Automatic annotation (TrEMBL):
Official protein name in the record: Carboxyl-terminal processing protease
Example of a GO MF term: endopeptidase activity
Organism of derivation: Flavobacterium croceum DSM 17960
Residue ranges constituting the PDZ domain according to the UniProt record: 82-151
Entry keyword set: Hydrolase, Protease, Serine protease
Length: 544
C-alpha cells in the first residue's frame, strides 16, 4: 500500500512539474491532455504490471527518452547526474584523478593524471578494475565510477587486472583539480603556445595567466590550441575573446523563439593585447564554445584559424534547477558569430528513417563577410583560413581509435618495454607489423559501415533460416573485406604510426610529455609557428 501511495505521489509530482513548465505554451490544452494521458498510463502500469516496478527508474527513462527525440543536448539530470554536471563546469571534485571508461564488467583506466591518487597508487592506462571494496563490478550494473568518489582521504581498496595478472592496491581519495589550461610553453624565443582543453569556470582566468606569463617571458606571437575541446560555458568563451579584442566588441549573439534569450554578448573588460599576432588551431572535435572563440576571432580578423573544420554545434543550452536536486538542461537558442553566422551542422528537426539528424548540405551554406571583408560561411562548423588536409583522420584511423586498437596495443607495448623513460618512443616497420598481428590475434573489429552492414545481413539471414545458403558467399565477402582493411592499414601506415607514438608518449611521460613533443613535431603547430614568423603571409590572410 505504501508503495502504491509513493507511486501516486510521484505521478502527481511529475504531472505538476510538467504542468508548470508548459503553462505558458499557446497549445496549453493539448499539452494538458497529453499529461493527463501519461499520468493515467503511468498509474495503471504501476498498479497492474505483473512484477514489481521501480517508479523513479521508469520516470527517469521516460523523461530521458522523450528529450532524446529533440536533440542530443537537451537532457534531464537526476540527483547523481547533477553532481557530475557540476564537476564538468567547476573542474573540481574528489576522486582518483583518472579518465576511466566502463567496458562490460570492468572499469578501464584510460589515462591516469600525474600526481593524483590513481597515479600515486601505481595504476596505469589499460588497467581493468574488477572490484571496488566489496563490490564486484560483474554484479554491479549501476554507474561504477560513483564507487570511486567520496570524502577526501577516504581509502578505497580495488582489485584490477593488468596484462592477465590480478593485482590489488589501495587508493586514497583526494581533491582533483581538472585544469582548463593543462599546458602552456614557449615554442621559440618569440612564440608562445597555450592549450585550452575545456571551458569550465576557470578557463578565462587560466588562459589569462598563461598569456601574461608567456608575454613576460618574451612571447610576441601566440598559438591557442582548441583541438579536442568540446566547449562548455558561453561566458568563458566571451571572456577569452576579451583577452585579445577591445572592450565593447560583439562576440556572440543568441537568438530564440523566446525573446528573453535573445542576447548580445559583448566584451566588458580591458583586453590584455589587441595586437599580438594570434593563430587558433581547431579540429573536428572542437565544438560549441570553441567555435564561439574561433568563429568570433575569425570574423573580427583578429586571428588566423588553422587546422580542420570544427564540429558544428551552434546550439545554446541552459540548466534549470528543479525539485529534489534534479535539473534539466534545455536547448534555448542558437548562437551567431559577429558576422551573423550560425555554424550548426545538424538539423535535428529533419531526421532520416533511422532517426539520425541530417547534416546541412554544403551547397546550402550561406556566405558572410568578416570585418575586413573576407568571405566566410555558416552551416557546418568553422572552416579554417588555413586548412590542413593531412591532419584529418582517415576512416581506418578513426575506427582504430573507436575500437581501442591503438590504445590496447600501446598497453601491451608499454609493459613489454617499461624502460623507455623520457625518450621519444619510435614505432618501426617491425613494430607496425607486430601491431597488425596484434589486431588479428585480438580479433579487433573495425566496424566500418560495410562490415556492420554485412554482419547485419547475416543476422537477418539467420532469422529467415537462409544463412547456410549464403554462408560461402558471406565468408568470401568477409575475407575480401578484411583484406581491404589490411590494405588500408598499410596505405595509412604513416598516420597510424603517428597516433601510436602519441599514445605511447602519454604512457611514459603523461599528457605534459605529449605537449612537449607536439611543440617540436606536430604538423599543425609547426605550420602555425611558420605562419606567425611570416608577417606578410599572416597579414595577407587577414587582409590587413
Amino acid at each position: 500500500m505504501k508503495l502504491i501511495k509513493k507511486r501516486y505521489w510521484l505521478t502527481a509530482f511529475a504531472a505538476g512539474f510538467m504542468f508548470v513548465g508548459v503553462s505558458f505554451k499557446d497549445d496549453f490544452f493539448e499539452i494538458a491532455k497529453q499529461i493527463e494521458i501519461f499520468t493515467t498510463l503511468f498509474k495503471t502500469v504501476n498498479q497492474n504490471y505483473v512484477d514489481e516496478t521501480n517508479p523513479s527508474e521508469l520516470m527517469d527513462k521516460a523523461i530521458k527518452s522523450m528529450l532524446a527525440d529533440l536533440d542530443p543536448y537537451t537532457n534531464y539530470f537526476n540527483e547523481e547526474d547533477v553532481i557530475k554536471f557540476r564537476i564538468n563546469n567547476t573542474g573540481e571534485y574528489t576522486g582518483i584523478g583518472a579518465m576511466i571508461t566502463r567496458k562490460e564488467d570492468k572499469l578501464i583506466i584510460k589515462e591516469p593524471y600525474k600526481g593524483f591518487p590513481a597515479d600515486k597508487a601505481g595504476l596505469k592506462a589499460g588497467d581493468a578494475i574488477i572490484q571496488i571494496n566489496d563490490v564486484k563490478l560483474a554484479d554491479y550494473k549501476e554507474d561504477a565510477s560513483e564507487l570511486l568518489k567520496g570524502a577526501k582521504n577516504t581509502k578505497v581498496n580495488i582489485v584490477y587486472v593488468r596484462q592477465g595478472k590480478t593485482l590489488t592496491t589501495q587508493l586514497i581519495l583526494d581533491e582533483v583539480d581538472v585544469k582548463a589550461v593543462p599546458f602552456f610553453s614557449k615554442i621559440d624565443d618569440k612564440t608562445g603556445y597555450i592549450v585550452l582543453e575545456k571551458f569550465n569556470n576557470k578557463a578565462s582566468t587560466e588562459t589569462r595567466d598563461a598569456l601574461e606569463k608567456l608575454k613576460s617571458q618574451g612571447a610576441e606571437k601566440i598559438i591557442l590550441d582548441l583541438r579536442g575541446n568540446p566547449g562548455g560555458l558561453l561566458h568563458e568563451a566571451v571572456n577569452i575573446c576579451n583577452l585579445f579584442v577591445p572592450k565593447g566588441e560583439v562576440i556572440v549573439t543568441t537568438k530564440s523563439k523566446n525573446e528573453k534569450y535573445n542576447i548580445t554578448y559583448k566584451t566588458i573588460k580591458e583586453p590584455i593585447d589587441t595586437e599580438i599576432p594570434l593563430v587558433v588551431i581547431v579540429d573536428g572535435k572542437s565544438a560549441s564554445a570553441s567555435e564561439i572563440v574561433s568563429g568570433a576571432l575569425q570574423d573580427l580578423d583578429r586571428a588566423v584559424v588553422l587546422g580542420s573544420r570544427s564540429f558544428g554545434k551552434g546550439l545554446v543550452q541552459r540548466p534549470f534547477d528543479m525539485t529534489y536536486n534534479t535539473q534539466v538542461k534545455v536547448t534555448i537558442s542558437r548562437y551567431y558569430t559577429p558576422a551573423g553566422r550560425c555554424i550548426q551542422a545538424y538539423d535535428y528537426t529533419k531526421k532520416d528513417k533511422d532517426g539520425k539528424a541530417q547534416k546541412t548540405d554544403a551547397a546550402k551554406y550561406n556566405a558572410f563577410k568578416t570585418k575586413n571583408g573576407r568571405t566566410v560561411y555558416d552551416g557546418g562548423g568553422i572552416q579554417p583560413d588555413v586548412e590542413l588536409e593531412e591532419t584529418k583522420l582517415s576512416p581506418i584511423a578513426q575506427a582504430l581509435q573507436k575500437n581501442d586498437g591503438i590504445f590496447n596495443y600501446a598497453t601491451q607495448y608499454y609493459f613489454k618495454n617499461p624502460n623507455v623513460g623520457d625518450k621519444i618512443p619510435t614505432v618501426t616497420d617491425a613494430d607496425f607489423a607486430d601491431f597488425k598481428n596484434f589486431l588479428k590475434k585480438e580479433n579487433i573489429n573495425f566496424d566500418t559501415e560495410t562490415e556492420v552492414a554485412l554482419k547485419a545481413t547475416l543476422e537477418k539471414a539467420k532469422k529467415e533460416k537462409i544463412d547456410e545458403t549464403i554462408k560461402l558467399q558471406y565468408d568470401q565477402l568477409l575475407v575480401a573485406l578484411q583484406k581491404s582493411e589490411e590494405t588500408l592499414l598499410d596505405k595509412n601506415q604513416k598516420e597510424i604510426k603517428r597516433l601510436l607514438v602519441d599514445e605511447l608518449i602519454k604512457r611514459y611521460q603523461y599528457k605534459e610529455g605529449l605537449y612537449q613533443y607536439y611543440i617540436k613535431n606536430n604538423a599543425e603547430i609547426l605550420k602555425a609557428t611558420t605562419l606567425l614568423s611570416n608577417a606578410t603571409e599572416y597579414n595577407k590572410i587577414l587582409k590587413k
